[in-house]
Amino acid sequence: MSSVLEVTDLTTVFHTRRGLVRAVQGVSFTVNRGETLAIVGESGCGKTITALSLMRLLPMPPAEIVAGSVKVAGTDLLQVDDATMRRMRGSEIAMIFQEPMTALNPLITVGRQIAEMVMLHENLGRSAARAKAVEMLRHVKIPEPERRAREYPHQMSGGMRQRAMIAMALACRPKVLVADEPTTALDVTIQAQILDLIGDLQRELGTAVVLITHDLGVVAEVAQRVVVMYAGRKVEEAPVAALFADPKHPYMRGLLASIPRVGTARGMASMDERLQEIPGIVPPLNELPAGCAFAPRCKLADAHCRAEAPPFEMKAADHAAACWKS
Amino acid sequence: MSPLIEVSDLRKYYPIRKGVLRRQVAQVHAVDGVSFSVGEAETLGLVGESGCGKSTVGRAVLRLIEPTSGAVKVRGRDITQLGKTELRPLRREMQIVFQDPFSSLNPRIRVGDIVGEPLKVHGIGDRRQREEKVAQLFARVGLRAAQMRNYPHQFSGGQRQRVSIARALALDPSFIVADEPVSALDVSIQAQVINLLMDLQRESRLSYLFISHNLAVVEHIAHRVAVMYLGRIVEYADKTTLFTQPLHPYTEALLAAVPMPDPTLKRQKRHVGGDVPSPISPPSGCHFHPRCPYAEARCRVEAPVLREVAGGHQVACHLR
Fold it and tell me: Chain A 260-319, CB below 8 Å of chain B: which residues?
């Protein structure tokens, strides 16, 4: 398999009045053609900053990518000039966001927004670009695409808007799609439709997908590989089956034990059965403890964990984690 | 014996006004004839997707919004007809916890005062007694008494939700509406708050109306479950029945759509299509018929009534 996205040692910091905040620290991963890599973690773990770093969409300053490379089909996005990056966004790497209402321009019809993007990247005239926009809306299964193309974002439902965003993102057949919580704002029946749609298009176009999510259910259903992030660092990486069957990091083990599951209890979970808790809270990134960032919440933590950050290393074949205790 | 809370045929319509004269041109049937009951020390889960009216039900039951019609009986007494002063003592019994602990706590008030406010409003105890009570409440929800002097922004989301729960408990209520209480929290924090709510129920025989879109959470915490779609209850059963033998096609669809955190399960691809229709102009007949894989001619014209199919299992569907 050929990897189309290769992220190496990505490190993103923010210069704030309260000092340097290390949002992403030395994160590496690769994604193959047609593969879905999920990045999971809780709010503040650095998953969205990782996504925005890949797209070079962070405001600089205050943000700064201080190290690393992001190679799409061999080209390092962090080294190219702004004009080249603009060309690559959409044609090589594209992104969809959690809330399409804030990502779409409310003053321009949906059809025109897609057409503009097509005209920027492909040598097409206005009417051809419009036709392509309608074609893309049909492709993402929006009913009556000709009429919908003339509508403004606010006239569409949340699910419909997310479809329109996907249409725009995939119009120029990018090699990589970064999807940041694409279904979090949607209802569960609509979420299932959108996940199906992304999967269908991915199979058809061979797109590599980086899926950012906090929902382990979504991860289990659509991802092939998973990167788990905590406090700006990668703490575990494995194929999805291995990760769920035998999580190596206590944080991941804790997460899996803490979520209630539909149907597994078959409604018969006794009311006395408590969910397992992970005590404490995610530490703020400007007050990270020395050593392992998870140590203050970890049952297994000892003096070593609190003093020295564990290296990210192989724990089994194709299964790596950063923990002294596994 | 009558249940603690008994809601019958609750309706809430909102007018849609247009033009300079603000004439009423239509109505949103946010809640359209909903009936249920909640027993002592029982949790009723109310599930549905956004816009189905579940939060409106929660607020109307507490009369935080005035229902258009219907009855809400608390220990057999209808509270929809009571005046403000008559209602006041009953308010002590019924409290609410909101979804967003960031907007439901006043950022300028110390959390100790937030939790003590209901005591003050109802004129309970003197200053020192109130402070003692607040300290007890903090201990009950797992916060340190020293944190009473802090402001909401100094707390994380999970801790703020504990503050909200402490405030709801201040007047020793018997019934709490919990409106998506864990939806805004991180996964690792949700379990803490769910466990807290269940512990409190065991200790104080609290009853909950637990409103959520998250079926897994509802399956864990609820005793009985009501499923809502566009302002109506479409299925109502005890938890085990609902999750093992769902009868309504919408309940089936909801259960099938929940992503399972288990990669060994093969993903079933029988998802309902279509969007949730607007409650301003809901579909004729059964509201679910445009999305229902089994819909027949009858479903398009005649609205099914909620009827009992087995002991305590109610469903609103012509075909089941």
Answer: 260-269, 271, 274-279, 281-282
